[in-house]
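Quick start: what a row looks like.
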Amino acid sequence: QVQLVESGGGLVQAGDSLRLSCAASGRTFSSLAMGWFRQAPAKEREFVAAIRWGDGSTYYSDSVKGRFAISRDNAKNTVYLQMTSLKPDDTAVYYCAAKFGSYTYTRGYLYWGQGTQVTVSS
């Protein structure tokens, strides 16, 4: 069992940066994949980024590649999503998720946080 708690959301202006945090507790293993997803109003949830806990390998959606960076701090059991050059289209509820499996496969996540709202004004 893995418990996830996100934090760091808020209201920012276009072009600003924001860092989300996801604190993980429970069982964590090097094979754990951690992901960030987002869901905008009236849209389906979409994959944003993922990281393999063990070696820090990362994987991104094309929509955020070059603007967002996912990282982890093993000592703090925390995963981060650093978001830069934010756009109004990035407005969504951002969710942290975890699974035991491939970090490059965007489905199959078993554990989810409660979500944190990110709003980007133009």
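That is the whole record. The mean pLDDT is 94. The chain is about 0% helix and 55% strand.
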